[in-house]
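re: ur question from yesterday

yeah so i grabbed the chain u mentioned. its 121 aa long if i counted rite. heres the sequnce exactly as i have it in my notes:
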Amino acid sequence: MKGLGFFFVASAAVYLTLGMLWGISMGIAHDFQMAPAHAHLNLVGGVLMAIFGLFYHVVPRAGATALARVHFWVATLGVWIFPAGIALSEATGRPAMAIVGSLVVLASMLIFLGVVMRSRL
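ran it thru and got these structure tokens back, copy pasting raw so excuse formatting
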């Protein structure tokens, strides 16, 4: 695997590893307050990034576009902000960062939708 697909899949592997370690540490501590943030790290960071990467691997011309590169960075930003915002919201009751993160993840999905639709041409 090479190109943009590799970067998405490699990122997914890192985020899933971090999510698993976080889940294990919560289990050891018997403290599951951060379970929603952990779950979203696994979902957005692991599952979505892997799906994106596999698409770009299967459709390499889609991954060669500038929009696809923008997609990688917006998706990465969403992975960093959204779970952190959920954790902050759980800890403080202030959801602003989680809301911003969710909007960044939504923007990433909309960019991906655009890339997918353009790849049919």
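noticed a couple things. The two ends are 24 Å apart (CA to CA). also Helices lie at 3-29, 35-58, 60-63, 66-92, 96-119.
anyway ttyl
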